[in-house]
Write the structure tokens for this entry.
Amino acid sequence: MPKKDFKLNRREMLKLMGAGATGAALNSAAPFIRPQFNIVKSQSNVLRILSHSSPQTEVYRRAGEAFEALTGTRIEITECPFNELQPKMMTELLAGTGKYDVIPITNAMLYAATNYLENLEDMYTDELMADLPPAAVEHCRGLEGELKAVPTLSSLPANFYRTDLLEEAGMEPPTTWEEFVEVARACTLDASSSHPKIWGALIEGSAKAVQPAVKLVGWFYQAGGGIVGPDNMPTIDLDENVEALQFIVDLIHTHKVAPPETAEMIYEDVHNMFIQGRGATAINWQYMVGMANDPEQSLVVDKFAAAPVPEGVAKGVNIDHWVMVIPSDSANKDAAREYINLALSDEHQLDMFRTEGLCARMSVMDPENPEVYEINPFIGAWVEEMKWATPQPKWKNLNEAWLRLSFAMNSAVTQSSSPADALERAQEEIMALMED
Amino acid sequence: MTATTRTSQANPVLAALGLVIRNAGFYLLLCTIAFIDLFPFIWILLSSFKTQLEIFRWPPTFFPENFVWDNYADALALLPAGQQPVSDIPYGLTNSVVISLISTVLILVLGALAGYAFGRLRFPGRRVLLISLMMLRMLPGIVLSVPLFILATRVNLFDTRAVLVITYTAFNLPFAVWLLSVFFQEIPRELEDAALVDGCTRASVLPRIYLPLSLPALATIAILSFLATWNEFLFAVTLTSSKTAKTTPVALASMQAAFQTRWAVMTAGAVLASVPVLLLLFFAQRYIVRGLTFGAVKG
Amino acid sequence: MSPNMSLQSKPASQRASTPWDAWRDWVRSHSEMLLGYSFVAPALLVVGAVMVYPILFNLNIATRKWDWSTPFDAPKPFVGMANFADLIASDRFVNSLKVSLLLVLFALLVEYILGLGLALILNRQFRGRRIFRTIFILPMVLAPIIVGIQWRYLLSGNFGIINYVMFQLGVDPPAFLSDPKYGLPILVLVDSWMYVPFVSLILLAGLQQIPQEVQEAAEVDGAGSLARFWNITLPLLGSSTAIVLLLRGTEIFRTFDVVYVLTGGGPGRSTEVLGILLYRIAFGEGNFGMAAALAVIISILGMVIGGLFLRFIRTETRLF
């Protein structure tokens, strides 16, 4: 076809545009804009779970096997990667696929002011209520105080340290910020033929994920700051918070005890580096205990311990939880409730503790219990932390807020803005999120 | 090589020396560029034989300490009974093969039919339809990700292989139709007329006359469509969620979102996913180059 | 194009007595048209369902509030142009627009200059042409996801080989993937790595079409090689240049895959191109209405940029 054939004349152009406009007009009355539910045929004998690929999901799978033996209802678990769980759940619920009956999540939707999740008030017996850390129950409450979830696993960071390196340097495990800097300084070793550069402190600072922000607020609390003010409004730019962020920036740029790559690190890089023996201390979650003791992947087996995170002017750490929710568009809500109850039984909570290093019910993780002690010898550190841990803020855009805070932290640790400016901008952005 | 002979007559020894030096410089440059182009893949290839521990080793090893095949076993799910692969790559490979092959066949069939109609048959609206089709080709895929996601969930095709097959077919059709219509037009009409006189129908000249004569064009379309669908990521990541339908690129990318990135297995998966691409590159390079430059030269 | 004789061999209209006959005759006399429509129908159906209808549906979504604040069991409310207004007023959009345009500009510049250089070098006979061409094409045909993984692996701060080599050479390795000021350069680097061979392939085809006589005549006239390049080669490459810039420009504008795995839009927002922003808004934050609005803006921008580009090239090169 010659080139001139590839041009439309004005009349043809108008015709095409007319067709487009007619289509658009017809479409505004389209059927698809209306919600539509249970397209997926609900089967009463199948319970569908959306979960992320991790050892935690294996616990739910084993509970599922037990559930099937008890009730005859089969469990079908759809797995997705850890960092894709929340976006996937959000988009599928928004599009209304009606595909899932139970979803174990951390926080993404709990504080959404809408009715996407079932109210689970009825599942809280007095007994259960007394057995959960108060922060966990608080975590499950929606904006109006309604209980929308049931916790299955508490998650909070502790300070891991290399016993051998500290001993060589003649240091005690740090309990305060000053000691933390001292230990990190003494244990930062330049690369040699026998070992790579060993950093004194491994922390997260990536802007890509929420986890760095979740850990950052722990430092805020330790500096005497906080992130929730009166009326549930954010107070990101408090002077104490700026001081805490400055402290972290100093670890990298002044004391040079944390790697410059901190800015691209998330929990995963922290554990990778720590189990490769490339860090003397690391702030990370409890799951790292099992990983660092696994000779298949770890070079630091039996060479580390964990202690509560260091305190500044105050003790403080941010506690997060894995909770189970039931989407409102589920067709199997009763079976879902039964399943959650089973997952909370002693047996499966102990399974969770064995797999993840912690669980939700306090009575299951009693440090006095020799079995518990054997699984996680440092359980004392976490039980101690739970006494003064602060729950997550109740913001309806919490996930986004964390991302903004991670971003602020990232710009501070890359020195693209000062901690004060970074946090001020985060404050503005998070305020704007709350107004939506 | 004409320049060679001309100069060598003037002063053989000096000219030859100059030529060697100049050629050495030329080949050195080519090899440097080739090295830059190849090194990232070679590095991935070597890493795929290392253990997860060795990948993080200090100082890094260039050649694997021991060549281990575990990563490939894991990526292909050739594991001892009871052991689960750490990633979705095995499922991704199966899905990719199925989806790419079916889409390629569909693109060829639908593309040949429409290409023949646009190239050789006369009907009202033909030009406007073809131009509209060409304009759709310019549309960035990301623009349609949201409506396609919602529509796919509403017709219950979300997270199925079928939705990817349909999407890929649609997105690759405009190019196939255009290329084939241009190609068919260049086939002399007399051949068709002769066949019609011999008793062929209008519909049967397509398989009897046109298709056998356009094998190079069909091969080009098949290979480019296969590559495009095999490598596609955007729709694969927005329209699938589980291992029942996710393709290899999604399986690879989601390994980075996993709780722990298994670099060793991921590099093995990347190598496996590149195998068909490399095979096509070596054995069908002519068609790839023709297809890639077709738009540029004929546009 | 002559009317086809074999189709009109039966003058049918005289025998049309029943409606069925009339219908049959009509079909016979319009058989080419009917065949044409039935041949294009399957393709148009698929394209219509997957591309045309979703475009219209997208316009619909863009005018609605469709996010967490709308209850799951109620229709999504119509909000007019509010999504567009919110989006255009946001810093993120401005940032992404800037990042996308800068990426197009710099990547085009680098790719064109390097591609032209490579084409000039390759424009001669030499042994091993085929093997080198195979190697040069490799980066372009590899899946973008794999390219992203490769480079993330090479550039990683914790165990990347590039950092290690620089460290060995006594250079303090920069934090490639953590420092916002390296974000865009890294994308330009990787995109060039992938597409310089493609650019040079097209320019090489253009170079080979330049008649040898023209060059030789200029040489006889005493033009230096630089002058010949500037006054003859470059202008005669006009059409190849135009095509390559247009093709690459539109492609770079829609970059998504590589950015997704390599930087994910970070560090900070330094590589958050429009495509990544749309993905984040839709599939990270669950705001379908705003994402649809952004999709409309991206399409319009794409068309405007493509059109401007085409017009510029047309007036500059007087080719079309």
The domain at 158-319+393-435 of chain A is CATH 3.40.190.10 (D-Maltodextrin-Binding Protein; domain 2). The radius of gyration of chain A is 25 Å.
